[in-house]
Write the structure tokens for this entry.
Amino acid sequence: MEAGGEIFHDLFDLWNFWAVIVMIIVCVWLFHHSLRYRSSDGKTIENDSDHFTPGVFPKENDDLRMELAWTIVPFILIVYLTFVAWGPLDEVWSADENAHEIGVTASQWNWNFDCGDLDADICEVSNIDVEGQTRPLLRLKAGESYMFNMTSVDVTHAPFFLDWGIKEDTVPGLITRLHYTPSVDEIGSSLLMCTEYCGKDHGYMTAVVEVHA
Amino acid sequence: MFSTLKKPQNIGIIAILLLAVVMAPSVTSYPHGASGVQDSGCACHGSQADGVTPVLDGLPNELTPSMTYTLNISFTGGPSGEDPNAAALGGFHLWVSEGSLSPIDGDDKVKINPDGSATHNGIDGEDVGTGNDQTSWQVEWTAPAEGGAKFTLHVNSVNGDGIASDLDDWNRLNAEVGPQPVEQASGLTVFASSILLMITIVGGCVVWVFYRENPDSFSWDYFVPWLSDWLTTTDHKKVGTLYFLSGFFFLGVGGLFALIFRIQLATPGNDFLTQDEYNQFFTMHGTTMIFLAAMPMIAGFANWIVPLQIGAHDLALPRMNALAFWLNPAAALLIFTGIFSGQGADVGWTGYAPYIVSHTAHSGATLWVAGQILLVASSTIAGINFMTTFCTMRAPGMGWMQMPLFSWSILVATLMLFISIPAFGIGLIQVLLDRTIGTVFYEVAAGGDPLLWSHLFWYFGHPEVYVVVLPAFGVISEVLSTSARRTVFGYKSMVFALAGIGVLGFIVYGHHMFTSGMSPVLRFVTMLTTMLVAVPTGIKIFNWLQTMHGGSLVYRTHTLWALGFLVTFTLGGISGMYFPAVAMDLHLHETYFVVAHFHYVFVGGIIFGLYSGIYYWYPKATGRMLNEKLGVMHFMVGFISYNLVFWPMHRLGIQGMPRRQHTYFITTDQYFALPAEAADWNMMITIAAFFFAASNLILVYNIVVSALRGQKAPNDPWGGWSMEWLTTSPPPTPSHDPHNLPVLQFEEEHDDGDPGLFGRWIQWMMIAEDGGEEE
Amino acid sequence: MSYDSHHGDHHDHPSPFGPHDWSHGAPHNSWAPIMMAFGSSIFLLGFTKVFTQTWEGDAWSYAINSAQFGLLIAGLAIFTAGLYVFWRQDWSFDGIEFEPKSVGTPFRGIDIRKVAIWMFLMSEMMVFSSLFSTYLRYRTGIDNCEALHAAGTLTDGTVCWLPASYFIAEGGWHQETAHAALKFMPDTLIPGAINTFALIVSSYTIVLALKTAKDRSLSDSERNRKVGKYLLTTLLLATLFLIFKLVEWFVGFELGDHDHPLFYSPSLLADGFTIHASDYTYQVCNEWHDHHCAEGQLETYTIDIRMAASTFYVTTGTHGVHVFGGMVALVYMVIKAYRGGYTPDNAVSIEYFGLYWHFVDLVWVLVFPAFYLY
């Protein structure tokens, strides 16, 4: 298993690709210039090209074409990346009308899952031991579409579905929704953690989500 | 020695201070926080009196584990019983460290509080039981399965007039039973002792600095005037030094917090800190580093350098400047008060509602909020001062587009800060009132909206990030240009990039709230705007790189830090680009990837920038050169260990390690969590963190030793062009002669003196028709 | 010039307590900043200790811990002493020898103080913007109680918004009696209306003070007297404003006998409009009969209107604090005026205070309709 869902990894790989390219450009440029244009012994001024004198505004050093180039080229890259990041939004924020609705109620410091009338095969809640503490275990079925309707009774919490790479705050007085369809690749159990700071036992506010075939 | 005492005003001041000390009985820290409520077991009874004798009977000499004992609580003395028809006689409150308390079956005179302590029934006019009409009570205590326990008993002797007042007395009794555990050093004790040690060292340093200033004619007679001169100074250089020293001190304090909770995180399931301590420590780490370390250090640089650089004799409002500084230590006192009572703020530096107004948050959070309010006041005052200085005190000949880039960066940062910080201030006032007088701005049951706080906070919080990083940009521009002997490439586009970041900074804050339940439309809009921030930031980075072109780079320590900054800040900037993609942020939000990102920006950006600034301007400020060898050593150790600390955090974040958590979970047979390697990475981070901390000691040593024995610095040791290098090292007071201000000269032909369209408009707006205000 | 500060040469220093010799430039040392900073810190510490709340298992209980008042007062005392030192140094300021002027474009020749006060007002604008954001968020986000009642969905325990105007402009439960007694204006709006008038007039008197101070045709003693009089009028109007506000909040008016009042205006507190009003008794009368509700026509609900009250008190309270700050400054200015501190060459301080005062007035013009009328 790997943390983060498919959408995350697709985007992440693309971003890494461009990050490496940008970093290579910057580093090569940096090392080339800092070695090529160093003064001979690295200490004394030998080629003071712009003649700095205190209290005198130095002569200009600019090149509009170059400045425009590194305004426009990154801008195009940004537009492209934005366009790519735009696509999966539908996936993330979609609302499948036929999804199985699961209620999630957070409290300090526990998760409460409510399967409603769903079959035990599709949604079932039981208990599991996490490092000596009894925690809820939510069993879901791969390939089914789920809508989590979430709220909180006290302060803000946020369930982090580690394996799927999604999270959303549970806000008291508000119902937030999270939609996901676990795939067959995601069969197995993974830890659910709280990712909005909520007080003393925040770090131990866990649950386990199991996806079965 | 006490020559200042001769003046009646001084005596008045001292009298007021003494009065404050006398009238501040509540400054002592209580076992359960600074709110004073648990002081007497009941919020109502005023004075502690020896005449009241608490009695706690029924404790065995030899403790049997898990056995239940009946404890008899009673008291004698005090005003109780003076009035036979009294409405109430007394009360008690019993805390126990181990085991559990319970009332005897059928006894309605005693109740158990949510925190596990026991008290009499009938508080606040409740008619349950008659617990307030007694002078003795019984309660059952179940001993712990192993070890002993400690008891704290408070009793109230009430005069029965039905009014809780100072006429009622109370007293305290401490008792213990069974084997007491060997005292282990708790994280809190370690922290408290370190702070005390630091304060002692600072105190020693103050005296020592006084001695060193004039060792030949050393006399204690001058100590009080010398000290009061520092306490009352309004000179921008001295205030700047004070700012810098207080920022540096709190950098150490914040670092100490970090080291202590890094020990906690070194291995999974560690219990070096309790959860309560851990939560306080990461809260205080964030608050201290941003508000008490980074901001004052930046303000220190701005104070020192801006007037020198723009050719002014001082800042526009010198006394306001001193006020803005002194609010910092005053606020720090409030922010830290909670920590020492074990009930420090545990709300995260973001202080999210509704947790911050909930009863589960520590009582110290109230004072944390109060301290932040003072910091907001400080920033506002400093902002007004700097904006006014920039608008009115630039030397003749220096138009807006001839200001050195460091000054520009401070200008943009100040403008951003002081437009954004009132929103935070109002949010804090709302929270403070929610936590004291009981308004309901963030009380969900009364319709309060937690997201309102997030909006007010991040409307300030995101610009704040740029507020602290922009001055570092300014330092890097100055240092790279001077070191490479080249004018900074594209001065105008640098200024426009700064301004662009300043504008964009206000409309991107929604990216902190991608998973908060905010409207998807807003999330989408801020996704687009956040992406755009990369453009002006990119312009700056490429301009810095191009500045070296055709130059003659001189390698000094400040050059090394600036080059290091370029690497780490670019990395931090790039990792920032992962968050605006909402689908990616859903995974990365609130994980260590975020921690890695903002430490690459804050430490790799701001702190490296400021270190570069220290090495660059130290000769100007002190008249002595810093030791280059020590500087290079500082850079090598610091740069490498810094990357070892924060680079692995990216990986931990991708693997899904959430931040702000007391521990982390490794994959077991039953469920998937972090891979086993995460524990190794965390251990490595902790070890590297100690090296990074140690590297800063090299800087401290260098600063101290060079101040004494450093080579004398010339006026312009690095060959910079801006006006601070015109002055002597250290500069005189006033920094430039106000009656003979320097006039900016130009290397190339330049048309100066035309105020431009905007300038003419301002003049038309601001100057009266009759010309009454002209020179 | 006595700019040089050298260790051991302390006697020529301008006193850090003032008064200050301004011909030597800005004060070099001052005890005011450190005193004001720590004073406000102690004040806030005292505030959190005096006003405490304790969690009682299911709700907060509130207490005023009077034993801790000392801390609050000590903080205020230190702050005030600091402010006094600040003023004492300003006392001798005559605006002739030392009035720093802007040297840079585009503000060249303008007083630095003037630019500073505009900067200050910029941040003040953000303060009130934030308060109004809060107001708009909750005003639009929480259902109006009267609308809920009209729609028939109001039940006991509902969290809803009962605007202050319900108590003020409409007279609340006392609507009908009040209208009978005073047909032309809803009852409790009177203090608010007088206040609005008072503030607007005070903006005028401060301008008159400035105009008089600049008038060279007057003799010195006459000018001092007149400027002082106008400033004093401004101060009195501001005091009137605060007194009426406190009356409106806590005291109320009542004229005539209780059953058939000539003029009856209970305080907001007496009406039940408090920040702790989680069980406000909301009464609606469907049919009035001789100033009393007809038999069986009275509907009573217990509703939670704490949010409306919190927003009202904190926003108008913040404005009130600004008025109070202005009053403190006015006290200093009145004294200075009678002592001849304002001359045609040194009148701009009145102008700069006036800028602040107009701003406070302007904010009230926004607060008044948003909280009192609508």
The mean pLDDT of chain A is 89. The CA atoms of residues 94 and 179 of chain A lie 7 Å apart. Helices of chain A lie at 6-36, 64-86, 89-93.
